[in-house]
User: Fold these one by one.
Assistant:
Number 1:
Amino acid sequence: MPRTVRVSHPILNPEALAEQIALAYQLPTPISSMFVSPGVNDTYQVIAGAHSFFYRVYRAGLRSRSDIEFELELLRHLQREGIPVSVPIPKTDGSYITGLPAPEACGLRSCSPLHLVKS
């Protein structure tokens, strides 16, 4: 009998992710989500009302919270300098990072929504 193959990169359920986003952010409704691409960060497209956003999900254990905070601050700095970049959107509490408990996805994942800025 073949051995069980371990999963190394599960994908979050887009509908469940949309529910979490709706709880954390003041976005227009209805909100839907779909998986776009895997990588060091998984990317989901979020449709909120007539607006489109991209939501970045960091894999558990690959980067520290301070690494993610630095990246988000760098994006905000670049925007202030007039450079077209994806800009983090604060949650209703003013913070930028959401921890998602996802046991099937190997623990806690950190997430940050980013609005796609067209150049």
Note: The chain has one domain: 14-115.
Number 2:
Amino acid sequence: MSTLYIVATPIGNLEDIGMRALRILGEVDFILCEDTRVTRVLLDHYNIKTRTISYHQHSGETKVNEIMDLLARGKNLALVSDAGTPGIKNSAAKFTPSNPAPREFLRRRNYLMG
């Protein structure tokens, strides 16, 4: 079973991140990033080598479909923003209750959002 994790990242100080978040970022198959360059700074700081995929509020339906395909193929993903928790005003909006199509896809396939 695949999992899509929504992971909060530090706002300012790279040390303001939990151990669970670091573990998840190191264990997933891909990290979906608002800006891969910004996320890479955090990942390099903690020597995390997980591959990143650009995914942000301007990503279109094609990118959402690619992400859904990764989940359908059994890949575990983490979704991060540049700082803080991905939410309604940014890229996570496509996976929140206000946008039921991807959310329904995730629910039907029993993917967990942690």
Note: Residues 3-113 form a domain with the Cobalt-precorrin-4 Transmethylase; domain 1 fold (CATH 3.40.1010.10).
Number 3:
Amino acid sequence: MIVFNPISTVLDVEGKKRLGDVVRQLRQDKTQKEFAKMLDVSQSTLSMWESGKVTPDLENLEKLAEVWGKTPEEFVAYLYGRKILNGTLINAIDKMSFKELLELQMLISKQMAAKVGTNNFFTKTFDNQLEANEIAK
């Protein structure tokens, strides 16, 4: 049976390197054979993950994520060199007042403006939103 692995078809060289690094890190002082047995895969499969020749299927990505203490989503995001918002940040944002959210938006807007080289638009937008909120109270 041929199993389609969507991760292996799009994971770039850097992602495969990150995968190999994580697998070696997780293995710690265990041999490939010991760690492979723990994951219920063959030693040659583990070796190919470490070398970046093959990527794990989704079931094995879940196993690796669990050993690493991450969610599968966090693990895949890491392989792609991305970050996802964690629950703590989302919970903190959910508890913010409108004014605190506007202030956070302003901070983010300033960072965005610095990256594109402008600031006036974002500052005026923030001031207008804050003023509109004060009037609405």
Note: Residues 88-136 form one domain.
